[in-house]
Amino acid sequence: MIYLQHEIHGRKIAYIEMEAEFDEKNGWVRYTLDTPVEAAPVVNELEVKRRRCRPTLEAVEQGA
What is the dihedral of CA 26, 24, 7, 43, to 10 degrees? Predict the structure, then answer.
């Protein structure tokens, strides 16, 4: 098993050398369990979606 870490995506395990080499080309860095690298905080950039409330019957009657 090959342990990899990415600044944004966190940590993962590659099971074959070819997968690890491909990941390293995309910003992943190898580490060992004996000397783990301190993880950078994962940034969640997803937009918070707000639920739209249905108007109440009173609001509909008042024309709001």
Answer: 40
- Domain limits of the chain? 2-62
Torsion of the alpha carbons at 12, 20, 1 and 6, rounded to the nearest 10: -30
Q: Is 57 helix (H, G, I), strand (E, B) or coil?
A: helix
Q: What is the pTM of this model?
A: 0.54
Q: 13 and 5 in contact (C-beta within 8 Å)?
A: no
- Positions in the chain short of pLDDT 70: 35-44, 64
Separation of alpha carbons 13 and 27, rounded Å: 14
